[in-house]
Amino acid sequence: MSKTISLLKVDNEVLKNKFIKLPWKLYKGNSNWVPPLKFDVRNNLDTKKNPFYQHSKLEMWLAEKDGMVAGRIAAIINDNHNILHNDKVGFFGFFECIDDDEVAIALFDAASGYLRDNGMEIIRGPVNPSTNDECGLLIEGFDKPPALLMTYNPQYYQHLIENYGFEKAKDLYAYIIYEEQVKKDNVFSRLERMSELIKKKENIKIRQINLKNLDEEIQKVRVVYNSAWEKNWGFVPMTEAEFHHIAKNLKAIVREDLVFFAEVDGKPVGFSLSLPDYNQVFIKMNGRIFPFGIFKLLANRKKIDTIRVLIMGVIPEYQRKGIDGVFVYHTIKNGLSTGINKAEISWVLEDNLPMVQTAEKLGSNIYKRYRIFDKKL
Q1: Which run of H or of E encompasses 134?
Q2: Residue 358: its pLDDT value, please?
Q3: The dihedral of CA 279, 285, 287, 290: what is its sign?
Q4: Which CATH superfamily is domain 176-369 in?
Q5: Which H or E run includes 356?
Q6: DSSP for 288-314?
Q7: Given the DSSP bridges, would you call strands 342-349 and 306-314 parallel, antiparallel or unpaired?
Q8: What is the model's pLDDT at position 181?
């Protein structure tokens, strides 16, 4: 390692502030980068307040070159992941770096060493800090800003990661669909007919979430979520505390008319969550709510014209019955009625054939591709 590069373990507030603020330096002048809300990043990294860390460990480092902060990385050990999958996988996340192989190597050495010392056999990432949060490295689609809760990074990050010996573990797709595509060739009419047939055949009722009974609704979401995704690659079930934590953070931006349950005899068998793409607002706020960010938020939220279809899942015994198509119909119907003219469906595992086929039948196209990498320790 060059003598001009030094590593600092992030173990105090001064270094944590530098860790959080580094992206503003690296992405300066990049019009497609969406500055995250700084308090959100801080909350995500707070090992005392974020319930994720009740079963996981986090260590963070900064790299300095010639006395200037040049990179950052976190190493994560998710006990719930390793118990469920019966493996010894550690993770890296929150990776940011100048275009310098030596700096990247120093960061990956630090994360790999910590994980190896704690019994891990594979390092996987990027995840921030798990697959239930932002994850994946953008490898295609750099010409447009990311949707809400999706990642963005410089193109050279792929070289830095692969140069260290990481290999592809899995690709994640982001599909885009426009209003004109939905209306073309009677796609929407066919969706409506199919939706009515499926609901009748399977005795399914679709209803919107009731935010006034949020605690009760969260319990239902958790049951569906942990059942529907349990066999998916990389899935980690969320604890009750994690669900409440995430729900609290998202409540302010949730629209009831874009969140649905599928129920049979009052029992939830499926859940769908779409959110307005608040990144269209956040990109103008420079990471700050106060003192003036709140006014930008209020002034621009009605101009949001895109939604992100974030979660769409059905419990195993009701999968492959077309319920995802029913969710798509109701989401499109309500979205179009309120000025939404495009939707991102993300992220979709490359080998999740039912969801891939649903997206393709709608006429949507992959417009961003993300990758998660593995390396043996």
Answers
A1: strand 134-135
A2: 86
A3: negative
A4: Gcn5-related N-acetyltransferase (GNAT) (3.40.630.30)
A5: helix 353-361
A6: --TTTHHHHHHHHGGG--EEEEEEEEE
A7: parallel
A8: 84
* Percent of residues, the chain, with pLDDT higher than 70: 97
Do residues 65 and 98 touch, judged by C-beta distance below 8 A?
A: yes
Q: Is the pTM above the cut of 0.85?
A: yes
Residues 223 and 271 sit within 8 Å (Cβ to Cβ): no
Measured distance between the N- and C-terminal CA atoms of the chain, rounded to whole angstroms: 19
Tokens of 58: 């986090």
User: What angle in degrees, to the nearest 10, is found between the helix axes of 38-45 and 13-26?
Assistant: 130
The continuous run of DSSP H or E covering 347 comes out as strand 342-349
Tell me the percentage of the chain whose pLDDT exceeds 90. 79
The strand pair at 259-264 and 205-208 is best described as antiparallel
Query: Torsions phi, psi of 232, nearest 5?
Result: -75, 145
Residue intervals of the chain classified under CATH 3.40.630.30 are 5-173, 176-369
171 pLDDT exceeds 80?
A: yes
Cis peptide bond prior to 126, omega within 30° of 0: yes
Look up residue 262 and give its two tokens.
Answer: 């599928």
Structural tokens at position 38: 């700084």
Which is it for the CA torsion 233, 112, 245, 371, positive or negative? negative
∠ CA 193-194-197 to the nearest 5 degrees?
90
What is the CB neighbour count within 10 angstroms for residue 259? 24
Angle separating helix axes 323-336 and 187-201, nearest 10 degrees: 130
CATH number at 5-173: 3.40.630.30
User: For residue 200, with 0-12 CB atoms within 10 Å meaning exposed, 13-18 middle and 19 or more buried, which class applies?
Assistant: exposed
194 burial (CB, 10 Å; 0-12 / 13-18 / 19+) is: middle
